């Protein structure tokens, strides 16, 4: 087991993550009922306020805090206990991130920031909302630097050696995050904050959108890569096999540093101010970032097949039956992976230049991120939560908890399947996203959208309710494993941190030469962004004043 | 670094598929004008009402086969209120915003345009079938976002 | 780096078949939306 002080840090991160999860999922439940016209909010509460809270708390706060809990635990386990400096800086990072979170959330609750988590200008929230977001990012940077410091100590003590796979992947994710945040920090610090506090009168809207999406797409990879770490490093251990290929795993992660950033324009394909050439160039780069996910798909199935054949499976698909289905740590992540198949395929469609016109800002997109971040990522995190908290608290993961965990992941899967399928189809039909209940004055096309069995508001509401039930079961499991489950006094009751062996003997050393990858990443960013961004600044129209339209 | 033979087959298949996708959208976009909405023209968002063509929004016939439709979006409506265009003719939509970001999205068509203050979004589209098409805003713009819609009549 | 490695001789037919199923799902979904786009 890792050192007590490191466990405490990780547990605080998890604690905040699940408080955000609790509130965020409750907001989700309210939304499906408002859209169903079955719920009227009191006058002091607005649909878009709830929607903002749902997005910020789940997509940003839950994910980030959980990711750092996972990283802290895994880095302590794979590289050794944190030194006093690393620990101090980590705690500073934690508190700054938390203060930012609380400040931003308070502004949302106060109704001063119903701008959704994309906060597109010239919607103008309270300046303190942007300060909260900035503190949040700076806090994660401080925590990131602490982990990098810990990694550098290890490298110094193990000269010439490749780092353990978990540490390598953690650092990759952090490098990606640091580079990605430059965009959002630039726009929040130099555009939004001066404008929101009245120091400047106007804002360059198109520039702010582009800087946001420079950050916004790698943000989704910041969610996905920790899930991939679990898929590459944790799952093989549960299956009883080694990491399939250490070098290919590292190569896949390095490709994410290169290609997940210079691609933000694929979120802006239907807007003015960016010429078709630059949009299409970033579409091509977006397609490059699909390749490491294709490699990942192969590795996952290879793990399954090798494990199954080791247990005596024969034939083409015999291994499937030999997978450890009764182990909720595995089954949860398997379902998460399965959801990522249509999720990833949908993402390719979204990025396919003009095809984006069919789906842009429709409910399809909502369905899309619920079967990417909302299930593949979130359910992987759930699958980790089941053993990570008991591992950190030294409590048992009891039989009854395991059964509940199964109920939880199965309800989440059913709820998500219903809701996201409905959303995907509705989006293709044309129903918009981010809207409260509206039948568009009973326009026949709008009524037609919601006429199907799968595409009715009822299906979405049933799905949403099942999801909320599932979320509450998870909260119960979290509280039990944090505070109430019996202590694991005997060795055989103790929960392990499953980390698979990885054979580094064939892995080339240059894969861990960060300067190569950071250098290429910046070169690609400059190619993709320098000219269009500078033309946005040089040919900028008169800026926009702020509006509070809520 | 070594790829299993089957992984090579898979990656070649995957990468070729991606290249095919890109070629289809790229060729049709740049040689058949199937690119998404866009445009590089700018405008002073505070002077929309004084700037042509938005000082007189609506339908204008440019030549026998082309019509221009100028639209001003603002929270939470579109100007003008009435829109009538012929089927089978190329309609050039030009849209801008007086306040926040909106969209101009015509149901059951390829017209799905982001409307950004300071910029003019353009999109050409030819309606095949006459009828009344729903137009709505699909970018969050405030409390009344879900009541921001209108209709276009194609004759 | 030695040429022989841990993957030689592994039976991964099931893996190839599985990823190909994934590939077909990707292609079919893409083509469906492409057809919808062209139809609009």
Care to describe what's here?
The complex is a heterotrimer of chains A (550), B (155) and C (40). Helices cover 69% and strands 0% of the residues of chain A. Chain A contains 17 helices and no strands. Chain A is globular. The mean pLDDT of chain A is 94. Chain B has 1 helix and 10 strands. Chain B starts with a helix and ends with a strand. Chain C contains 1 helix and no strands. The termini of chain C are far apart. Chains A and B meet through α6, α7, α8, α9 and α11 of A and α1, β7 and β9 of B.
Helical fraction of chain C: 55-70%
How many strand units of chain A? 0
Structural class of chain A comes to mainly alpha
Share of residues in helices of chain A: 55-70%
Tell me, rounded to a whole number, the average pLDDT of chain A.
94
Oligomer: heterotrimer
- Distance from N terminus to C terminus of chain C (CA atoms, Å) equals 55 Å
Features:
heterotrimer; B: 155 residues; alpha+beta; five-stranded mixed beta sheet; 10 strands; elongated; C: 40 residues; mainly alpha; 1 helix; 0% strand
